[in-house]
Design a protein that fits this description.
This protein is of the alpha/beta class. It is about 45% helix and about 20% strand. Strands 1, 2, 3, 4, 5, 6, 7, 8 and 9 form a 9-stranded mixed sheet that branches.
Length: about 280
């Protein structure tokens, strides 16, 4: 990369989410790490989003001439994200969509500290914030085990992609409505054996509510996750994994009920034997 290339391209996708967009843009403008460009891909919002973007132009503190925005109709969130990829210039790409925001002003410093060895992926932890403002930390493992890939989820906003990944392994699959990021993780980890560097601290905050709490959303999410699993995991292994996960959940249930009672009973026997002595 030449000297005019920013270390990071932050890509923000938005559609009629003016309050979420404001929160996202304010968190970017407060970052102490400034070797970034910011690309805002708006889907033709009818609310005050464009006014917020124009206001943000005066707050932007990244690389010179590094603020880009467009407002036009698209074919969905992953079409918009792919648009951002096509115009991005950074060594790494991050998708911080409207409503999500950085955990604190030094979040990108933690990212920059892990870029020296040029890993293909850098993934941080995040905080999940509910509609009441209550936060819970979302932890990630240091490696992408098959069990985590089947049952967990990476923090998409806290993922930094080396731009080479999109060149070598393609863009997001736009046939997905909400699960193309999950498909891309499986593509990278299972098909291409990519590893990642882990930031064991919160990088971003993901806000729940809205569509993510809708029953239809949850149904589509499950269907698209299964579609991706069938794509990358052979049926014979997939069935075994599902059985293992089911048994693991049953064991957890036992751990929280019968086994605890059993352990208490054993403990009482030991207490009785000690008193007998």
């Amino acid at each position: 990369m030449d000297k005019t290339t920013p270390k990071l391209s932050i890509i923000t996708v938005n559609l009629n989410n003016v309050e979420g967009l404001r929160k996202t843009l304010d968190s970017v403008a407060c970052q102490t790490f400034t070797d970034y460009e910011h690309l805002i891909i708006d889907g033709g919002s009818a609310d005050a989003s464009i006014e917020i973007i124009k206001e943000y132009e005066t707050k932007y503190n990244g690389v010179k001439d590094g603020l880009y925005w467009v407002s036009e109709s698209d074919k969905g969130i992953y079409n918009a994200m792919n648009k951002g990829i096509m115009v991005a210039k950074g060594e790494y790409l991050q998708f911080l969509n409207s409503g999500d925001y950085f955990y604190n002003n030094n979040s990108l410093v933690l990212f920059s500290e892990l870029t020296h060895n040029n890993p293909f992926l850098i993934i941080g932890d995040d905080m999940i914030e509910d509609e009441n403002g209550i936060r819970k930390k979302h932890y990630h493992p240091d490696r992408a085990s098959i069990f985590f890939l089947m049952t967990g989820a990476f923090a998409h906003a806290a993922t930094f992609y080396n731009r080479k990944l999109f060149k070598d392994f393609g863009l997001f699959d736009e046939s997905y409505k909400i699960g193309a990021d999950y498909e891309y993780y499986l593509r990278l980890f299972l098909l291409h054996k990519i590893e990642y560097a882990h930031i064991n601290q919160p990088i971003t905050v993901f806000t729940t509510g809205g569509i993510s709490g809708d029953k239809t959303f949850e149904l589509i999410r499950r269907q698209e996750r299964e579609k991706s699993q069938l794509k990358y995991i052979p049926d014979i292994y997939l069935n075994d994994l599902k059985t293992l996960i089911k048994k693991s959940k049953e064991f957890d249930s036992l751990t929280n009920s019968r086994l605890i009672k059993y352990a208490k009973g054993i403990r009482q026997i030991i207490v009785n034997l000690r008193s007998f002595k």
